[in-house]
Each structure stands twice: as C-alpha cells, then as structure tokens.
Amino acid sequence: MMPADNINELNKDLIDTLLKEMANKYRKIDKKGYQPVDIIIVGGGSVVLNYGFRTSTIDVDAIINASNSIKDIALDLSYKYKISSHWFNSDFMILPSYSPRLLEVSEFYKSYNNGKFTIRTIRAEYLIAMKMQSGRFYNDDVPDIIGIIASEKKIGNDVSYEKITNALSYLYGDGTNVSPEIMNRVSNYCNLSVSELWKEYDKMQNKTQNVKEEIMKVENKDKIVGKQDAKELSEKLFKKISQNNEHNK
Length: 249
Description:
Layout: H1 12-29, E1 37-41, H2 43-50, E2 60-65, H3 69-81, E3 88-89, H4 102-105, E4 107-112, E5 117-121, H5 124-134, H6 141-154, H7 161-172, H8 180-190, H9 194-215, H10 218-221, H11 227-247
Parallel strand pairs: 1-5, 2-3
Antiparallel strand pairs: 1-2, 4-5
C-alpha cells in the first residue's frame, strides 16, 4: 500500500516530529550506536526549518550519512503521516546545486540519541547560492531567495551581494553556472529595504502560484511526460504570466 494521493505537505512542526521519530526508530535498529547519523537538510526543507515566511514543502532534500535502514524508516513514516513516500531523499546530489563543501558551511540544528543522530541545515548566503545555482526562476526558488534576504536583514545580518557571490565561488568554483538574469535580480534584491523585499516577495509568490495552477490544468498536464517537459512548460508559463503582468500595469 502506498501513501494517499492527497498527500500532506510538510510544515516545520511535522518535519521536526518526523526527524525525532526517525531518530528513535534508528536507535532501536542500531542499539549499540556503532554508526552515528549525520543529516544535512537543504532546499525547501532548510527554508521551512530556519525561516518563518515559508510554511511548507513537499519533501526534504538532504545529504544523508546513515545506513540504508534510514530509507525504510522514512518509508514507514510516510504511511503513518500520509506524506509522499519520497518525502526524505538525497536526489539533489546529482544536480548542479550540490557541492561537497555544503558539509563545511552547514550549521547545527538539532541532535538526538545522545548526539549520535545529528541534523544540520544550510542558511543565509549559502542557501541563496544553492538556489541560484539551480537556475529555476519559475518555482519557489525566487520567493525563497527574496524571503531569506529579507529575513536575514530583519535580524541585522545584511546578506550582501558580495557575500552571496563569495558563497557561490566557494561552493561551486569553476562549476558556477548562474545566468546573468539571476545575478542581476539578486543584486537588485540585495539593495532593497526589508519592506520593499516583502512587497517583491508577494509579487513573485503570486507569479509562481499562478504557474502551479496553470500546470494543473488538463491541457497543460497532458504536455508533461518527464521532468524536462515540466521544467520547460513551467519556464514558458512563468514568462507568459510575467509579460501579462507587465502589460496590465
């Protein structure tokens, strides 16, 4: 039996609950604690855990240093909580946004089992750099970047454009592959005030939500065969919605 089609999204409380249960179940399997567990949560999961502006994500992308039993535990939890069977995964490690240096820049979040089950996350300029490297300006990455900059500025941590470009260079070096459009957008975001950033966040959030709604229409869903089709359609819809918004001003 697989989890229900109408799966629950993951908010901060639910992710924390899942991680705690995962640690408890893992301790029972590895009773002698021979293998410590290190998990580095990135992407939307890291945004949800560290920042209040984004309330949920559909999955948790992570670098997972644990035995294969962790996957079985995650699958069992997906049945219990009616979430995606793929809610906890490391698929992003084959994507351009992965870097082995993420371990070095990750920050402690929580630990269980007397410190043998450790969870770390990515924050601030390094999380922004990952989202820029992904190059997806038609989904949640854009609002996330804006929200992270605004949230950090609000608490007095000015995430400057220089910090972000240094983070890109440190994580990806010669492998940095960010379009001029994305670089220009982020540069402009860094110069906005907190209130201006939240206005921009609302605008971009509305655009990405409109893209998601358009994709769910039958005539668009039929065009999608694989991930590349979904990406191309999303990009076209984002540009179309952006152009319509500019025209209606």
